[in-house]
Design brief:
Low-confidence stretches: none
Structural class: alpha+beta
Order of helices and strands: HHHEEHEH
Mean pLDDT: 83
Number of strands: 3
Number of helices: 5
Radius of gyration: 20 Å
Length: about 140
Amino acid sequence: MLLPSVMLVLAMLVQPACLSYTRTIMRATAAECVRAAATAYGGDVSAVRSYALRRLRAVPEVALFHVGGDADWDVSISRTDSHVDVRISGHARPLPLFGAIASLVSVSDGVGIVMSVSLSEDTRPEWVGGDYGTWQKIWG
């Protein structure tokens, strides 16, 4: 009787740690994507998405962490001259007891609970004048 109770308590403690790990990796990836998109020459951010997917492979393909593989990750990157928006979302399938609690707190669909991270940054302060070509001439 004691062993199943201990295992249940252990599972309830491990599940939030697994979801927190996934969310931490997603947040770090979004921050790196903002930096990479801000420095993308010519504004082409298509390579940044593949970079994000490569970084997200740090999340194990175990239902406690993430389900669906690379196809499940939704990475959205938009860039203007001085602003970058990154949104990353994916799914996790928690254990049954924790899953019921998590579905009450977060968005849930047929795949599992939806985990998403958004990051929006101004990449160029307003007080900085000139453009890339001007700065290249100054420092070149």
